[in-house]
Amino acid sequence: MPKDPVRAHVIGMGEVGRRLAEALERAGVDVVPVTRHDGWDGARTDPSSIRILCMREQDLPAALEMLDGVPPQRVVAVQNGWIRPLLESWPGCGRGLIWFMSKGGFFNELRPSIVTGPSGAWLAGALTRGGLHVTFAEDPAQFAKLEADKMGFNCVVGLPLAIHGLTLGRYLDERPDEARAVFTEAIEICSRALGVDPEPDAWTRFVRTIEPIRWVATSKAKALDYRNGAVVRLARSLGLAAPANESLLIAAGWSGRS
Ligand SMILES: NC(=O)c1ccc[n+]([C@@H]2O[C@H](COP(=O)([O-])OP(=O)(O)OC[C@H]3O[C@@H](n4cnc5c(N)ncnc54)[C@H](OP(=O)(O)O)[C@@H]3O)[C@@H](O)[C@H]2O)c1
Asked: What pLDDT is stored for residue 1 in this prediction?
């Protein structure tokens, strides 16, 4: 167990990074913002710091490369999607599942966010003192269950909205069977890959959770390799099928890299 950090390098000062940095500052933590061009010297060398990686999934490999040599226990990755393959050479790296939605002036905590890893208890405590709802998942199996659950969210709140040109609320109203199939398939396959049982009431909780963000829409689905695409790949590796996610990917012309 590493000593509690005395400083946080928040790397990637976009929507998530700025919200986490603000909360940590409110909690009295010494925060160093790291952008593509500033702050990297300390992020690479500071022995007393925790690095919170807040860039999008596709930018994570380059950031990890920049941190080569930093103990994994001093790193926390909070991306939304299936990033386990990217973290294979970072054993003991902390993770976060962010359950707030931040977009410009809009901010809503849909559920408590979750952190895990060697500094997870410290991080959850600091973010909570800073005004966010954050819990610490000590047990890796508990975190895995929650991660699979979040993959259901990731697969619905993105690609299907872009394909059908609908807001999230209208998508659930007009295509409830498809939405539920995409969601359930994602959770079941990710749970199987992680060796955990899916949450039995996940769909009902999801529908309740997204109530404040029914307005969300997207014209272009992002990070498909880490969301619906990851589900299809995982399914294949398990000898299973993921037809609901796969047909949306085909409609999007997904070639396996986006
Ligand atoms: N926004 C939300 O409400 C929300 C909620 C839950 C989870 N998430 C997840 O959190 C992750 C980040 O999302 P976001 O919405 O915060 O994205 P974002 O607003 O695009 O912010 C990402 C930031 O990371 C920066 N960045 C990229 N590579 C970097 C590098 N090598 N060094 C330093 N900075 C770098 C980007 O800089 P440039 O602008 O120069 O590219 C950008 O400022 C995604 O996985 C997302 O799915 C987001």
From this structure: 52
Domains in the chain: ranges and CATH: 7-138 (3.40.50.720), 142-251 (1.10.1040.10)
Q: Say yes or no to pLDDT of 8 above 90.
A: yes
Residues with CB under 6 A from ligand 1: 11-17, 34-36, 54-57, 59, 62-63, 78-80, 98, 101-102
Looking at residue 87, what is its pLDDT? Answer: 98
Runs of H (alpha helix) within the chain: 15-26, 40-45, 60-66, 120-129, 140-156, 159-164, 168-174, 176-194, 202-209, 228-237, 243-251
**pLDDT tens column, 176-225:** 999 999 999 999 999 999 999 998 899 999 999 999 999 999 999 889 99
Query: Rounded to whole angstroms, how far apart are CA atoms 23 and 136?
Result: 16
HSE-CB for 96 with a 13 A CA cutoff:
29
Q: What pLDDT score does 227 carry? A: 97
Q: Which of 10, 11, 15, 99 to mutate to test ligand 1, by most ligand atoms within 8 A of the CB atom?
A: 15
